[in-house]
Amino acid sequence: MKTLVAKVRNLNLFHPGETVVVAVSGGADSVALLDIMSRLECGLHLVVAHLNHCLRGTESDADEAFVASLADNYHLPFVSQSCNVAGLARQERLSLEDAARRARYAFLEQTAAKYGAASIALAHHQDDQAETVLIRLLRGSGGAGLSAMAGAAGEKLKRPLLQVSRMELEQYLKQRGLTFRTDSTNADTAILRNSIRHELIPFLRRYNPRVSERLAATAEILAGDEELLDGLTQASYHRLAASEDGEVRFQLEPLLKEPRALRLRLYRSALVELRGDLMRIGLAHLEAIDRLASSPRPNAEAKLPGSCRVWRCYDSLFFGHATAQPSLPWELVVSGEGRYPLPGGGVLLVERMTRPQSLDTGSRWSAFLSPEAVPFPWLLRGFRPGDRFTPLGMSGAQKVKDAFINEKVPPELRRRIPLLLSEGEIAWVPGVRLGERARVTSCIDAVLRVEILEITP
């Protein structure tokens, strides 16, 4: 069918003379794709790639042998690889379909890299697109999911048959006299995609005989809308999000001024930046993040699939990777002047010096202490519930927790701040305030200068 070959050629998905990896399973769709690609008459260098999923024993091996023979008939390079997809699914806790998809795309990318291919051609067609739309609709999806598959995805993936129906491909195979393999599992309606293909779509054709075409057209329209919305989202993301040290941060005031729909898209963008994908992230997770952002609580967090967490700290919303917090209490004895590495990260510096004219160090992480009022040895330890101290200039004791809150110290930082104790009393809370008992009086000639390095987030 010259018209079908011309239809694919007119898509202009491939550049003359480029190397293209063609994914061939041996089924009808991929056999038709390979034949069409071989007849495009634009000097393409084709490589036939086949992944043996090892799911059907000798049947899978026969598929591989068939594709090898097919490649030989076309005088094309053939690359194959075997993968224990069932084992991968168990290991990664994925469905067989998801595990097979991951293995397949990884293999195709490796093959493309090996041959220097600019494109990978996949045999998805119009009916596959319609099935994908229905699957995502049934599972619950927004516009991005219902856009389904793109004709050109990323830099390499190309789907030349996305506007071609299964019926057109069957007619093409018949007219060309091409044989193909039939996967016996395609008839198993316990698999969702097969059930949609053999039961749901035939039922829907009673209402619209062209339902597959209409669903595919809807996906194409939504894809155009998504392209526009994605551009708007990325512009807002660059304006509102700041990325540093493996974290993404939003200032809450401007974030909450944006429409809810845009905020949810911004959360998706932040998660993609951290994780690389949105696997197992659903609407419920995005709504939980939005509730966190608008909560009256100044500090709270939510854990997400994929070892990610989102936390609110006063006027900011953070996205980052979940990290294990030290569970054991720690203590460090400071016997005198010197440099002391801290268990939670950072360094304490202690030095004796002549009393300066000004006792203002210019930093919350350094202070001048009276050697007589806070004699060695000191004890450094982490914060404990119930800790109290008397801040400089005050006469009454205050909870350290309240001081943290007043100074808006992030909860994750509170766990890392070492409290300095002398004779059993807290003399300094770094990052917050010096204690009254460590006050340097006018009659003191020498002071102890203490500084915490590399403790701020």
From TrEMBL:
GO biological process: tRNA modification
Alphabetical keyword list: ATP-binding, Cytoplasm, Ligase, Nucleotide-binding, tRNA processing
MF (Gene Ontology): ATP binding; tRNA(Ile)-lysidine synthase activity
Known EC number: 6.3.4.19
Residue stretches making up the Lysidine-tRNA(Ile) synthetase C-terminal domain: 378-450
Compartments reported by the entry: Cytoplasm
Residue numbers binding ATP: S25, G26, G27, A28, D29, S30
One Pfam entry name: ATP_bind_3
Enzyme category, top tier: ligase
Gene3D superfamilies associated with the record: 3.30.465.60, HUPs
Domain of life: Bacteria
Gene Ontology cellular component list: cytoplasm
Catalytic activity: cytidine(34) in tRNA(Ile2) + L-lysine + ATP = lysidine(34) in tRNA(Ile2) + AMP + diphosphate + H(+)
Record comment regarding domains: The N-terminal region contains the highly conserved SGGXDS motif, predicted to be a P-loop motif involved in ATP binding.
Function, in words: Ligates lysine onto the cytidine present at position 34 of the AUA codon-specific tRNA(Ile) that contains the anticodon CAU, in an ATP-dependent manner. Cytidine is converted to lysidine, thus changing the amino acid specificity of the tRNA from methionine to isoleucine.
Family: Belongs to the tRNA(Ile)-lysidine synthase family.
UniProt protein name: tRNA(Ile)-lysidine synthase
Protein's organism: Citrifermentans bremense
Lineage, broadest ranks: Bacteria, Pseudomonadati, Thermodesulfobacteriota, Desulfuromonadia, Geobacterales
